[in-house]
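Sample entry (84 residues):
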Amino acid sequence: MNSSVIGKIEKAKRYALERERMQFSSLSVRFRGENDDHDVTFADEKWHCTCEFFEGHGTCAHSMALEHVLEGMLPTTVAHLQHV
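Predicted structure, serialized as tokens:
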């Protein structure tokens, strides 16, 4: 394997451990819920989910789960982890 590729692989491994380097600006996820699949998106520092609960409350189990998974990688103005 080329030494420059090996160096990039090592750098990628280091970056993966340094989550503070990453910040999501947009994201689209298909969430397999217990009753149905839902599309969860993050754009313009706002969440949206196609589940009924989100429509009435502006948050839901699907968006909160993703906030938990992405902890430290979302803009600080968005973090709602106190709900998780």
